[in-house]
Write a structure and sequence with these properties.
The chain is of the alpha+beta class. The protein is 27% helix and 22% strand. The chain starts with 5 loop residues before the first strand and ends with a helix. It contains 2 helices and 3 strands, in the order E-H-E-E-H. Strands 1-3-2 form a 3-stranded antiparallel β-sheet. The radius of gyration is 12 Å and the shape is globular.
Length: 79
Amino acid sequence: MMKETTFVIKELDNGWVWQDICDDEIAYLYCNEELEVPEEWIEALQCRHDAIQISLHRDRRYFADDWFVNLQRLSGKSA
């Protein structure tokens, strides 16, 4: 069974606040720089009010990667 590949991030890390995330481009930067999600795995990203929805390309190769485990933790989805 494939793991979930769409996540909703409602809590920010590393001193970021929602006022910092003013558009999808900044949300993409946050996911890439702070959450270390490799850009080649990001299929879609949408910044909503106080949340970032990120969808990944489906691939089993990243399921054990630290960034994926962290993404699951931040979105409240367990491994």
